[in-house]
DNA sequence: GTTTTTAGTTGCAACTTGCAATCTATCTAA
DNA sequence: TTAGATAGATTGCAAGTTGCAACTAAAAAC
């Protein structure tokens, strides 16, 4: 039979490689975090992050090129350049917080001084969560990969798929098996 | 006094650098994703990811050293080594999905196949979200950095003291760097 | 007009990446 | 029990990346 080595280059069908192209760079997330924290200028990033000038220059240019930061000289002092998060940049907030919460859960004990809170009640936010379409919080065991034609139906109850994977046994949640090759 | 800006060491008080120490490496997230997808062996990762042997070896060792993967020779064939996600590894799922969803939102058109669904109703999951302590979905504009002594008080009268994250749905808290606000 | 500030570039050494070939331990088959 | 295949890891070398330090360039301040 033919070679079934179907490179899971469906991997390239997923958003992850694209995201990592920008955010996989060594300092990108730290710069992003500094931006979320209200830093806007070259020398600010430089001193707060302890990054080398050339690398910072390069990373900022990269983030700008990818539309995550906006680069604009200040009106009052045209030497100063403001780097500001775009909407695309702000959309990275869940990813950054999730990483951060993970690091916090498994890192050494940390006493945080400024705490990130919900503005409404000033209580610390909860964990970044995977939600179902209707807002239930999902864990890894609730997830599963399925072919588009086997998707559930919202209201009219036409569930036509035999359950292949057990809930916890061979939890093939996310097990990708469909065929598709990109290279040879 | 007056300048509330705190220096670099505050940055190291946040979970992000710790998380990036492992997951900031070039292939870590892709290997993690392959693991989520049910791959367990060296040669599987090798062919599916198209990564170099030495790099894969190195990254796997790194992920094992950081407790994200478990490394165990198979009982029946002691040449074969099984790499399996630990709980710590599974806890990276929200971060990975958030990144992936972001990449998907802003990347080139992608037809996701297979689709990640909620096992209960087989409908595609919703976006990874930042939740308040009581489950409301928060956006960047709902967030604020605050000093611990200015935290709100919960309905039951207990103070929300920042601590580590519990298993699920516990109170979260994220340190900020400077005394600047997160919101725009 | 000289100096200072802000952002960015260039030179060079140290480190990291990744392909190809090699190595070790184990399993299988004659 | 030796030959051969297989799984994983290691080494050598070329190419690329990182980062310190010193330098340029332009706008602002003096």
From TrEMBL, chains A, B:
InterPro entries: HTH_HxlR, WH-like_DNA-bd_sf, WH_DNA-bd_sf. GO terms for molecular function: DNA binding. It comes from Pontixanthobacter rizhaonensis. Pfam families: HxlR. Residues 14-111 form the HTH hxlR-type domain. Keywords: DNA-binding, Transcription, Transcription regulation. This is Helix-turn-helix transcriptional regulator. Transmembrane segments: none annotated. Coiled coil: none annotated.
